[in-house]
């Protein structure tokens, strides 16, 4: 069953929305945290006509909160416990939102490890409050019990909001009514990236000096920027670089990030291959103006596995991305990569295939330039914050229409 298309991407899967615009809809959103990269999304949503947004957020390990800016937000503590190797949670914000008399439409995190989710969904249904579930809609470690719980939770919701069309298609084919399924393709605000890119490219002498200072002039550069998490398989990048060094003697691999034990393991691997001059650990870096010259000096952004929003970060600089073809174990943002268009996929786990993909980009300037242009277009025109927020608005309007019919 094909998904319905939409020029604005506002309602790619659902049915017709009913929004008279006569009064604003009080939309209460619960989230596990308020990460910095989400600020532009909620700010854009809060400024949409007819939407009165309130965000209730907790605190997730490893994700520092920022202060709400441009919208109403309130911190509500969340309870965490580790059980049978999994983190289970109770977020009081879900239960509170379900009981709010002033709320018209609610949005809850779609995570079956929230013990608060089913009771809160039942409370919302009792109070006549439509609920949107927002999340991946699948698990990388899917099994029967988790799938049954997710299906049970889904039946209690009014609508679901997904990160990608592929998962939306799968849910519709499994029996979920098309009108209940909406897509808000995950995006990051490209404003600061575009500003940093322009500033460095407008001053080529400064960029050349940076490359001279860091020994990058006339070098072929591979770049990785993220945490050194074992799931990201940075070891495969180091092994591939080792295979390529005879063919590309001026190749250098730049690793920006940190990761405790994993970082130490990666440094040991570099030492084993005697590649201290070819692989550089730069450390963590978050300032966009500081990151920009590294991206602008890169021939390819290589993220061996588990890629997420980093794909859109690299695309914002026009850098082609290389990652693995096990898309079912990637994050939803993998849908932004079009193989042979703005990046390349290699056979998951194969060092030789990763080296081959990287070698193609390094050997073929025309291919790399074409992919660079396509990457920029993807970031600037397809995966944007306004298009993402269009999906939220369509889901809210649908839920409001269902509420009015009751």
Q: Can you describe what's shown?
A:
It is a single chain. The protein is of the alpha/beta class. It contains 14 helices and 15 strands. The chain has helices spanning 39-46, 92-99, 117-126, 144-156, 165-173, 191-201, 204-213, 234-244, 260-272, 288-296, 310-316, 351-363, 365-382, 385-405, and strands spanning 25-31, 51-57, 72-75, 78-83, 86-91, 105-109, 131-135, 159-162, 181-183, 220-225, 251-256, 279-281, 300-302, 321-324, 343-346. It has a 7-stranded parallel β-sheet with strand order 3-2-1-6-7-8-9, with helices on both faces. A 6-stranded parallel β-sheet has the order 12-11-10-13-14-15, with helices on both faces. A two-stranded antiparallel ribbon has the order 4-5. The model is unreliable at 1-12 and 15-21 (pLDDT under 50).
What topology emerges from the helices and strands here?
Layout: E1 25-31, H1 39-46, E2 51-57, E3 72-75, E4 78-83, E5 86-91, H2 92-99, E6 105-109, H3 117-126, E7 131-135, H4 144-156, E8 159-162, H5 165-173, E9 181-183, H6 191-201, H7 204-213, E10 220-225, H8 234-244, E11 251-256, H9 260-272, E12 279-281, H10 288-296, E13 300-302, H11 310-316, E14 321-324, E15 343-346, H12 351-363, H13 365-382, H14 385-405
Parallel strand pairs: 1-2, 1-6, 2-3, 6-7, 7-8, 8-9, 10-11, 10-13, 11-12, 13-14, 14-15
Antiparallel strand pairs: 4-5
Helix pairs in contact: 1-14, 2-3, 6-10, 8-12, 11-13
Give me a quick take on this structure:
With 406 residues, the chain is an alpha/beta fold. The chain has 14 helices and 15 strands. The strands form three sheets. It has a seven-stranded parallel β-sheet, with helices on both faces. The chain has a six-stranded parallel β-sheet with strand order 12-11-10-13-14-15, with helices on both faces.
């Amino acid at each position: 069953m094909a998904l319905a298309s939409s020029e604005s991407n506002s309602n790619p899967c659902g049915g017709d929305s009913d929004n008279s615009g006569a009064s604003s809809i009080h939309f209460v959103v619960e989230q596990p945290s308020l990460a910095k990269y989400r600020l532009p999304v909620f700010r854009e949503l809060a400024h949409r006509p007819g939407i009165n947004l309130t965000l209730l957020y907790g605190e997730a390990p490893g994700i520092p909160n920022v202060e709400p800016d441009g919208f109403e937000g309130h911190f509500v503590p969340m309870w965490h416990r580790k059980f049978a190797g999994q983190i289970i949670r109770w977020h009081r914000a879900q239960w509170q939102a379900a009981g709010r008399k002033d709320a018209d439409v609610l949005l809850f995190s779609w995570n079956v490890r929230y013990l608060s989710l089913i009771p809160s969904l039942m409370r919302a249904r009792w109070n006549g409050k439509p609920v949107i579930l927002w999340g991946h809609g699948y698990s990388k470690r899917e099994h029967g019990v988790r799938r049954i719980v997710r299906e049970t939770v889904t039946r209690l919701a009014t609508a679901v909001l997904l990160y990608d069309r592929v998962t939306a298609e799968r849910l519709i084919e499994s029996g979920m009514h098309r009108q209940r399924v909406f897509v808000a393709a995950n995006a990051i605000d490209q404003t600061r990236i575009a500003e940093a890119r322009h500033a460095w490219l407008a001053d080529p002498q400064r960029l050349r000096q940076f490359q001279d200072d860091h020994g990058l002039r006339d070098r072929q550069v591979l770049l990785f920027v993220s945490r050194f998490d074992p799931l990201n398989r940075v070891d495969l990048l180091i092994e591939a670089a080792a295979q390529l060094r005879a063919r590309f003697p001026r190749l250098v691999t730049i690793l920006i990030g940190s990761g405790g034990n994993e970082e130490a393991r990666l440094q040991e691997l570099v030492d084993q291959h005697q590649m201290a001059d070819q692989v550089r650990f730069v450390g963590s870096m978050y300032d966009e103006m500081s990151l920009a010259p590294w991206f602008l000096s890169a021939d390819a952004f290589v993220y061996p596995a588990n890629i997420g929003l980093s794909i859109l970060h690299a695309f914002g600089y026009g850098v082609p991305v290389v990652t693995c073809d096990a898309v079912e174990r990637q994050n939803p943002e993998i849908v932004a990569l079009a193989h042979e268009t703005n990046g390349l996929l290699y056979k998951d786990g194969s060092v030789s295939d990763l080296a081959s993909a990287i070698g193609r980009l390094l050997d073929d300037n025309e291919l790399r330039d074409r992919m660079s242009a396509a990457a920029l277009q993807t970031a600037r025109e397809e995966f944007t914050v306004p298009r993402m927020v269009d999906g939220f608005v369509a889901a809210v309007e649908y839920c409001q229409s269902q509420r009015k019919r009751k």
